[in-house]
Amino acid sequence: xxxxxxxxxxxxxxxxxxxxxxxxxxxxxxxxxxxxxxxxxxxxxxxxxxxxxxxxxxxxxxxxxxxxxxxxxxxxxxxxxxxxxxxxxxxxxxxxxxxxxxxxxxxxxxxxxxxxxxxxxxxxxxxxxxxxxxxxxxxxxxxxxxxxxxxxxxxxxxxxxxxxxxxxxxxxxxxxxxxxxxxxxxxxxxxxxxxxxxxxxxxxxxxxxxxxxxxxxxxxxxxxxxxxxxxxxxxxxxxxxxxxxxxxxxxxxxxxxxxxxxxxxxxxxxxxxxxxxxxxxxxxxxxxxxxxxxxxxxxxxxxxxxxxxxxxxxxxxxxxxxxxxxxxxxxxxxxxxxxxxxxxxxxxxxxxxxxxxxxxxxxxxxxxxxxxxxxxxxxxxxxxxxxxxxxxxxxxxxxxxxxxxxxxxxxxxxxxxxxxxxxxxxxxxxxxxx
Length: 434
Known about the structure:
Layout: H1 3-6, H2 16-33, E1 47-51, H3 60-71, E2 77-81, H4 86-99, E3 106-110, H5 114-119, H6 138-142, E4 145-146, E5 149-150, E6 153-159, E7 161-165, H7 176-190, E8 195-198, H8 205-217, H9 233-248, H10 258-266, E9 270-275, H11 279-285, E10 295-298, E11 313-320, H12 327-337, H13 340-348, H14 363-368, H15 372-381, H16 391-408, H17 416-424
Parallel strand pairs: 1-2, 1-3, 8-9
Antiparallel strand pairs: 3-11, 4-5, 6-11, 7-9, 7-10
């Protein structure tokens, strides 16, 4: 298989053996999902899940909750939805956890918050009894661990993907240089000042993610695999990647979030878009009365075989509140929501990538999501943001400098690596620096 074949948006044709395997797996998963834990061992009462907005197609998270409620009428679950803004969600969740009222049983945490909530004692370890973790994808499960303990189970995963206009770009770019060349070629051929790369560029976590991916794609790094902030050559390469992001972003580097990036790409203004997998369903089903765009999906660019592109691993994790008065029931709900059958429904119907490996081999899933193989490869290659309790502070410091550089032309400050190191350790900025 060539690299071009690998990223085509045509479904992969699997043999009858694969189809039979998928059917058997689904049947087994369906049977297991209803028998997560002995219901007689549950504490009485409603299970309250605190979560951000359900971005799945057709509200599939609530659909799974409805299934649980039908099976467990004495332990009905209820989702309490917070603001759609991630920073506001985190603030509200921390406030609820610190209140001491014990009104929440399950937190649906962004993967970057799990370490913070574990360190603060807001969630409990999943070890009484310890759930089975066989079958989860390695990356998503790694976001649930902190200091060697399991604190959550992965509800859905996510990874940055490259969406492109396949009618104008026959083959997805493997490198950022190729992406830039494609933009220049299309501009010359059409006489149209088409925008190059619509990423998430507003001042929120989306900017951190978009910038990190551009830095990694240039062979650079900001934090190494041991959680240490880097300097020297890796940091300089990262700055080069940031400069390239400024060059290929839409004119003026507008403050785009996921929805605004999608609108810009759908309008035909942008040749490429960085977004999460759930954007695929919107692009192929919502044509706003016109013909659907001809789109392809590929991993983010990198440096050919020397350094393939890597997306940021995202997603949400389900954790039991340390103050819950029904922890056994809460854990059983989490196991139900993360079971193979639940994960298949969440992905196949809702567009949120599954955390269970077997789902990616199901023929029905592959037929409905032609980019499944590309998605699975991207998840396997994805990188984690620092798994540290002070990550939120690190992200604030990081994107404040990046936002100034991209949008206002402000230079990255001297001593920036040291500022990031202090933020990651939960310390204030070095003396004399903001």
